[in-house]
Amino acid sequence: MGIRNSRPTDIRRPAAVMKLDLSFSVWVLAVGLLPLVRITAGSILGAAVNIELLDQDRSQPVRAHYSAVSSLPCPALDELCNEADCMNQLSSSPLTGALPSPGWCLHQWQKNIPKHHTSALQLGSDRAVPLHSRANLSVRADTNRVNQPPFVALPPPVRVQAACPQEIQVNVMDLDGDAIRCRYKKTELGEFLQLNEETCTLLYEGGAHLGQYSVLIMAEDFPSSDSEAESFSTVPVHLLITVESGAGCSVVPQFTGVSPAGGAVIHVLPFEEVHVNITVDSRVQSVSEIAVIGPPGLFVSPMETGQSFQSSVMLSWVRGPNQFAHLLPVCFAANTQSLQSNIRCIWLQQTQTDPLPPGTELKCKERELQMSLVLPISFLENLHFPDLQLNDPTCPVFYNSTHVTATFPLTGCGTKTMHLGSELLYTNTLRSINPNSTISRVATLILPLACRIPAQQAKGPAFKISIPEEVKTFGAVSFWLEFYLPGKGPMADKTQTRSTDRMDMLDLHVFSNCSLARAELMVGRCVESETEDFTNSRPLLNQGCVSGNGTVEILTSTSTVRIFRLYLGSLEIKGDTMYVECVVNLCVTTKQTDRCPDPCMGTPDPTIVDSIMTHSYTVRSGPVSLIKVTETSATTAKPQSATPVAQPSTGQVTTAAASHPLDTGAFWVVAVSLLVFMRLP
């Protein structure tokens, strides 16, 4: 079956679903769908390639920036790209999400490629995903410059309800202002998705079978003045769309006014920090997560649930020295257990700056806590020097016939302090502010100023660190397990689901009574057994990762509570009773912006301690009845005692006594003392 370039006239829709506007100009049938059986460990859930041109004299003239979403457990980079020139762009822990089960993580890397190139991404025995890109290296007649290929954004994994129509936007951007059209890579199968080639919008009409469907789309740029011309370049995006069952076509979560509009562009100067608030309103189901895909180094705060059915996260990103693409997409969507909001994408555009002239000096005086600037004025033509000011306009900026100078404290004049990886970063900006609102020919200047103080691990006898005792940090803590039917118990608002006549689901609640702010409950391993002695057991969790399709974590905003939904049919439990045993511990980070390491993501760097953990404790439930007696039946099992089964995870730290008695109030200072800031050369 071929592609049709006109709008279909006979499309069947379920009677009880919303109507969608089909007044777009060019709709084609989605015939590039490859149905998959199920998501398995290591499946590729999405991928995209963006390309930028390098110097013309290079043997590989194009730099490709790869993004790939895979299911948990998170694979190593060499499983996705095993070639020697693959450069990992991971600057911290990868971005992750929980839905669809068993969860996912994001990998990003780059490599130099020829102008025509096809990469085949493959994990395990899954079908390889071909990603073809094409760049035009010739000079364009209309701009007298080499063409800039379009950029395509990779969204979080896409979820739709089987019976409900939904639009899926493929977000694209072109810095040349060209027209962008999208097409399918293949024309082989399917007929339940349509693609608007001009707006790059997928329309799901409803009626598909449950499962996952692979879609490979090519985005191409064309000259705006000639719609019949050939495309300049091509970039691919691969989507894995999960079709799920749902009870009716409910209103999906909606973004509120404080959230950025889709397609917004934020210009980012060097060493500038960007903050983005994302807030959603969901009145049908509680939000399980706000899934985010973004550039390396993007920090996503823990989700906060407030009143009026709203949930929010804060995104922050610092532009440090990098080799990322000039245009960086950030895409996000709100997930409930059965619904997904519309996906929005914004763009971070890294503003390109001119090189500073010879004779420019910027000194970071760490001892004096000052920054000083000497800037020749020879290149500052038509600049009104009295208008120059720092972040704080009351701080003086001096100038004469040859130079502009300024000396200001790192703790004043509007200087901002932030962390960039393991570095401490002080930033300010020298800019010209024209007090006149009228348009003039007077030049303007925006000059970012930054002092980067790298961290170095403390060594030698002068640095003897002792970790505070567990009870001094976390207090006297206990752990216990409780079981409830979905929608029951103390976290009922987080676990609501449809009613059923038989007990096919049970929610395992893991609790700790720790009152320390920011303490996180970590669940490493859980097993179930049909006997109290656990002679024969089956895994529910393994190193924090859900095991198989029988366990799904339900996210909450309470850091000392973890909830796992057990699908009893998938677990194949025999008999009417089961017992559960879990290994748990508590963790707290040394920096407020960090999260404790996820054991499902692998072992963290042992040379740097950025979190403190308790011993590991084994906690067991009593007998859990699997027979549904009443709607309010629940099983609670509190252990008689919780005994350590492992040594503290911070055992690699020297425990020699400090020169002064350890004050529990100095916990943060002691923990951070492992990193000593050194002066820049």
TrEMBL record:
ZP domain: residues covered: 363-603
InterPro entries membership: ZP-N, ZP_dom
Coiled-coil ranges per UniProt: none
Claim: Disulfide bond is one of the keywords in the record: yes
Alphabetic keyword roster: Disulfide bond, Signal
Protein name in the entry: ZP domain-containing protein
Organism: Onychostoma macrolepis
